[in-house]
Amino acid sequence: MAYTGLADFVETLDQAGELLRIKLEVSPELEVAEITDRVSKSKGGGSALLFENVAGSEMPLLINAFGSYQRMSLALGVKDIQEVAEEIGDLIKIKPPQTIFEKVQILSTLSKLTKFPPKQVRNGSCQEIVLTEEKIDLDKIPIIKCWPEDGGKYVTLPQVITKGLEHGDRNVGMYRMQKIDKRTFAMHWQIHHDGAKHCREYFQAGKQMPVAVAIGGDPVMTYAATAPLPTGIEEFLFAGFLRKSNVTLVKCKTVDLSVPADADIVFEGYIEPNQTCLEGPFGDHTGYYSLADQYPVFHLTAITHRQNPIYQTIIVGKPPMEDYYMGKATERIFLPLLKTQFPELVDMNLPIFGIFHNFAFISIDKRYPFQAKKMMHSFWGFGQLMFSKIIVVVDKDVNVQDTDEVWFRVGSSVDPKRDITFVDGPVDILDHAAPLLGAGSKMGIDATKKWPEEGFQREWPEEIQMSEEMTEFVDKRWESYGFPSEL
Questions:
Q1: FRET pair for 114, CA 20 to 30 Å: which of 91, 158, 411, 458?
Q2: Inside any domain, residue 150
Q3: Quick check: 102 pLDDT over 60?
Q4: Residues 107, 242: one domain?
Q5: What is the DSSP letter of 159?
Q6: Are residues 377 and 301 located together in one domain of the fold?
Q7: Beta-carbon neighbour count of residue 424 at 10 Å?
Q8: Contact 198/189 with Cβ under 8 angstroms?
Q9: CA triplet 449, 455, 456: central angle to 5 degrees?
């Protein structure tokens, strides 16, 4: 199901009983964040919140819209996130065709990936209102201040659209933006990401860089901006695949870029070569404030929006919060793609306390000595998995979604001197514990059963398990003992 805009998604949330409308006037200065933090940490992620009366703005504000497994599924138009993973899994299970019938099947399967490319249109609802020059006023947008020591108000859920100067490659990323004044943002894109790469190209050429930022629209597009896509797969194409409908794009009014026609709000503008300003601090998903630093300045040339736009935002901090469910969706959706690169990979879990880059729990089908260590180094050399600070590898029969079971294996199967590996390399820019900005050490823990070929000189003990016969016998008599059906 493709949404026609954020209002359409809000209606779906409402009908599903997943939305709470707050009519009381609230302040964008910390109050929205304090309310949302309490709700997002409640059982099951609470409800999506629509603040209909934000002080200083006529726009309603939507937050915590992705803050549960159910709402993430609704955002992607499926009953369960696993449906998307299974569809991707089916697409990549392609073997060389042996018959004409198999060739036709493959063509049909591959067409799903390219069936919905982005489509350029002349007009879009995102441009029903066009504000330029002196009419540009960010004070009228309900941008929030999340935490007391933040450097200012932040746009935290943007679809930042850029285009490479050298090759014209388009990217849609999600980078926080600090409001500096009525017409200016600080653009926080990290050095490892494509937006920063494009910026370096313009800076080195001494040229002004066009930038467009979309807010809202189909929630699939917001999610796509966060997705760790393989090189050559554009976010608009991926979003079209997810929503089973073309993403329609409209030309910006003042810069040479295109934006989703159904977006709620669009910021258009440019970045001057080598101009920076102080950005931060910012209360981040690490649970700590990221430090202030110099980042590019984004000057607005236009704000366009729908007649009745909804401003969507998010707060991050100590988990669990809304971004946790977005990250778990990515973990599940992209697992089939990882398995094509690592055939021994059975499952993975980026646990909630690990904020997606501090811990990675991996189960493998171990087939040769030291394969666990091979997997650690493979992950450290693959895309954004390079930021994994602590990797734990276990055998295929271990449920990595059960963190207690993983830690039990670490305690019972690890000799620290033999089974722990340390490496140096790039780490997440937000890792405040690293000795250098973006560089530090990482640790791998081999918690698999050890083989003689790995230097284990004794026999690995057999695990305690009840016999299948007795388990089945007791199962049949369970309620006769006087126990409830589920204990």
A1: 158
A2: yes
A3: no
A4: yes
A5: E
A6: no
A7: 11
A8: no
A9: 45
pLDDT tens digits, one per residue of 265-307: 999 999 999 899 999 999 988 888 988 999 999 999 999 999 9
Q: For residue 461, tell me if it sits in a domain.
A: no
Q: How many CA atoms lie within 13 A of 201 on its CB side?
A: 16
Whole-number Å distance between alpha carbons of 181 and 219: 28
CA 336 to chain centre: 16
Query: Residue 412: which domain range?
Result: 342-454
Instruction: Residue 161: give its domain's CATH number.
Output: 2.30.110.10
Considering the candidates 284, 323, 419, 431, report the single residue annotated as catalytic: 284
Is 246 within a domain? yes
* Residue range 359-400, pLDDT digits in tens: 999 999 999 999 999 999 999 988 888 889 999 999 999 999
What CATH number corresponds to the domain at position 372?
3.40.1670.10
Per DSSP, the three-state class of 46 is coil
- For residue 485, the one-letter residue type is S
Q: What is the pLDDT of residues 216-251, one digit of tens each?
A: 999 999 999 988 887 777 899 989 988 889 999 999
Do residues 115 and 143 lie in contact, with contact meaning Cβ atoms separated by under 8 Å? no
In a domain, residue 332? The reply is no
Sequential DSSP letters for 83-101? HHHHHHHHHH------SHH
Residue 236 dihedral angles phi and psi, to the nearest 5°: -65, -35
Q: Which two tokens stand for residue 487?
A: 């204990």
Q: Give residue 113's pLDDT band: very low, low, confident or very high (50, 70, 90).
A: low
Cβ atoms of residues 394 and 400 within 8 Å: yes
323 included as an active-site residue = no
CA atoms of 25 and 37, how far apart (whole Å) = 18
User: Using CA atoms, how far apart are residues 441 and 424, in angstroms rounded to an integer?
Assistant: 4
Q: What is the DSSP letter of 356?
A: T
Alpha-carbon gap, residue 38 to 45, rounded angstroms: 9
In sequence order, the β-bridge partners of residue 63 are 49
